[in-house]
Write a structure and sequence with these properties.
Elements: H1 2-21, H2 29-38, H3 45-52, H4 56-68, E1 72-76, E2 84-88, H5 90-114, H6 116-129
Antiparallel strand pairs: 1-2
Helix pairs in contact: 1-5, 3-4, 5-6
Length: 144
């Protein structure tokens, strides 16, 4: 398991370097995990806290921070008059698209290092190990 954790850390560092180079100097890896959930139609603060495995108070602090930085906004919830739906802003989506491009480049470099067949086998193995492919955001949360 430490090999997977080490690899995840290295890939996270590469992604962070790419995001900073693109001007997203105020995002942290934890924000990426939040964006991964918000990019699937938004979420409530409670759902975001559950996704991240943190308290509602901690999620509230992150939400306030991301709202001040212009990455998300609160909208009226479509089915709960008292609730708010957290959605990505244009800046949030720009960060997500930049991260997606950076991740694709990272994967391409990984495929080049491993070779086509070894990389295909790695992807197949990781997909088989995924716990619930029907909820793509569920696998994207802090590993600790």
């Amino acid at each position: 398991m430490s090999l997977l954790a080490t690899t995840l850390g290295q890939l996270t560092d590469e992604l962070e370097t790419e995001l900073r180079a693109a001007g997203f100097t105020d995002v942290r890896p934890a924000h990426g995990y939040a964006f991964s959930r918000l990019s699937f139609g938004g979420a409530t603060a409670v759902h975001l806290a559950e996704h991240l495995g943190i308290t509602k108070q901690s999620a509230g602090q992150m939400i306030d921070e991301l709202e001040r930085a212009g990455y998300l906004r609160r909208e009226p919830h479509p089915t709960d008059r008292r609730g708010k739906l957290l959605v990505l802003t244009d800046r949030g989506w720009a960060c997500v698209r930049t991260a997606e491009r950076a991740l694709a480049a990272i994967e391409a470099r990984l495929a080049e290092r491993l070779g086509t067949q070894a990389y295909a086998n790695l992807r197949a193995g990781l997909q088989a190990a995924s716990t619930d492919p029907t909820k793509p955001w569920r696998g994207l949360r802090p590993p600790w």
